[in-house]
Amino acid sequence: MTEDAQILIARLLAHQTLRREDKLVKRALSDEIFRTELDTRLKACGMKFMDNVYADYVTLALTRDSESKVFGTKETWQNNNFGLARDGVALLVVLWSLIILPKRERQEAHQLAEEDQNDMFGKEKPLPRAEDTSIGISYRALLADFGDKLGKKTRMDMNLGQLARVGFIERKGDMILEGPLLDLLMDTDTLKDRIINGALSDIFHIPAPRTPAIIAADTVNNVDTSDGEIAPDAE
To answer: Which superkingdom (predicted)?
Structure first.
């Protein structure tokens, strides 16, 4: 068991993410004794195992206690450690909102992306995988709706390229799709209501509350792998 935990950690450090169907990942998600050993080893290194039932992948993150010691020498670490400018961080939050929130609604409704919504027995099905429910958004639509606010075409293309390189998104023709990390880094329970009812209320056609919601930097998970990850804030 000790060797398996060591191998799983090494593979996550080397590959950044692994699919939930991976043999050792499935063991970490189902074997309490193995998971305890894994968590103990990671905690000793200032790291933690990250997964959620809505994502098809798992990854590693820094513990909160380790963040300042790892990134404390960089003035911008509390915003992000990919070197993203504010428009890049804002673009990440917009993409998460437009791709992940609708996907999770479909998953909770046990509805596939192209499935009949009138399936009366849908609730009896297992939770659908992300790849079966995540639809993505059109690049042209994103540019038309947010281009003026997010640096126009040149800046948006540059930031999309960076987000694709690190695994937040994937590009297929005109479509921008969910990448392995997009649904692992964001604290959905904290951010969902603030985004829907606050920052993006006009998009979701919901009146904003009287007191505008503010998304704090510490509501988003910091993730560190061999390539370095992000801790975005949505200023």
So the answer is: Bacteria
pLDDT at 198 over 70: no
State how far Cα 161 lies from the chain centre: 17
- Residue pointed to by tokens 């849908």: 122
The single residue listed with the structure tokens 């509805």 is 111
CA 104 to centroid of chain Cα atoms:
12
Residue 224 near residue 47, CB atoms below 8 Å: yes
pTM: 0.72
Architecture of domain 2-71: Orthogonal Bundle (1.10)
Q: Is the pLDDT of residue 190 over 90?
A: no
Task: Tell me the pairing of strands 57-62 and 137-138.
Answer: unpaired
Mean pLDDT of the residues in the chain: 78
Q: What is the structure's pLDDT at 179?
A: 94
Question: If you count DSSP H runs as helices and E runs as strands, how many of each does the chain have, helices first?
Answer: 9, 6
Question: Could you state, in order of their start, the residue ranges of all structural domains in the chain?
Answer: 2-71, 86-219
Q: How many residues does the chain have?
A: 235
For 154-166, what is each residue's pLDDT tens digit?
999 999 999 999 8
List Cβ neighbours of 2 (8 Å cut-off, separation of 6 or more). 37
Two tokens, residue 151: 């640096």
**Residues 81/231, Cβ–Cβ less than 8 Å:** yes
Name which residue leads in pLDDT, 212 or 137: 137
